[in-house]
Amino acid sequence: MELYCRADVIDDEIASLMSRAGCTLVQMGVESADEKLLEHHGKNIKTEQIRKAFAILKANGIDVGAHFISGCRETRLQACAAPPSSRSSSILFTPPST
Fold it and tell me: Using the 8-state DSSP alphabet, how is residue 42 labeled?
């Protein structure tokens, strides 16, 4: 089973329940590994929360796919420095005018 969720909702209890329910992959909207970009885009999440969610999910035998936003004028390629821990990832490129 594959689920989509935000990093800020993952804790040990939720990850354990997801695993017992048969979840094998969580797709997560990481958006960026750059704190300033997360703040600029109003994501209300810190990179430490993202790293912790990845670790908790992996500890419960769940793979993680990461989705990043790239291409907006504030984005730098090195902002995508947090590699996904799984077989799935995607990057959304937006036109510079958006």
Answer: T
Element (H, E) at 57: helix 47-59
Which residues are bridge partners to 31 per DSSP? 68
Residue 45 has pLDDT above 80, yes or no: yes
pLDDT bin (cut points 50, 70, 90) of residue 20 is very high
Q: Are 6 and 49 in contact (CB under 8 A)?
A: no
**Does residue 38 sit in helix, strand or coil?**
helix
Query: What is the fold of 2-93?
Result: Transcription Regulator spoIIAA (3.30.750)
Torsion of CA 98, 26, 47, 52, to 10 degrees: 170
CA distance to 58, 62, 89, per residue, from 92 (Å)? 24, 24, 10
